[in-house]
């Protein structure tokens, strides 16, 4: 299970980076880490931070993290 989860997570992040471009992706990643460094976060928090940086990725993230995750 771990191998599948980590590989899927890596693939999702790599595709997200490609969709957003390096500058927007890394800015969103920094914002997410700074916002949730010492407190719990849920999928909705991740989606909100990345969608704030690039609204076009919200649908992709919802599909990958909510709908597609149900296997």
Description:
- By secondary structure, the protein is an all-alpha fold.
- The chain is built from 4 helices and no strands.
- It is globular, with a radius of gyration of 12 Å.
- It starts with a helix and ends with a helix.
- The relative contact order is 0.13.
- The mean pLDDT is 88.
Total beta strands: 0
What percentage of amino acids are in beta strands?
under 5%
Q: What is the alpha-carbon Rg in Å? A: 12 Å
Structural class category? mainly alpha
Would you identify the regions where 5 or more consecutive residues have pLDDT less than 50? Answer: none
Major sheet summary line: none
SSE topology string: HHHH
Shape: globular
Instruction: Count up the helices.
Output: 4
| Mean pLDDT, all residues | 88
Ends: how far apart? Answer: 12 Å
Helical percentage: over 70%
Short description:
By secondary structure, the protein is mostly helical. It has four helices and no strands. α3 runs antiparallel to α4.
List the helices and strands and how they pair.
Blueprint: H1 2-20, H2 22-36, H3 43-53, H4 58-67
Keywords:
globular, mainly alpha, 71 residues, 0% strand, 4 helices
């Amino acid at each position: 299970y771990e191998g599948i989860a980590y590989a899927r997570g890596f693939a999702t992040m790599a595709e997200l980076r490609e969709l957003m471009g390096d500058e927007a992706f890394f800015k969103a990643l920094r914002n997410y880490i700074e916002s949730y460094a010492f407190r719990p976060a849920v999928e909705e928090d991740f989606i909100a931070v990345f969608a704030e940086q690039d609204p076009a990725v919200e649908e992709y993230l919802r599909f990958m993290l909510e709908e597609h995750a149900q296997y």
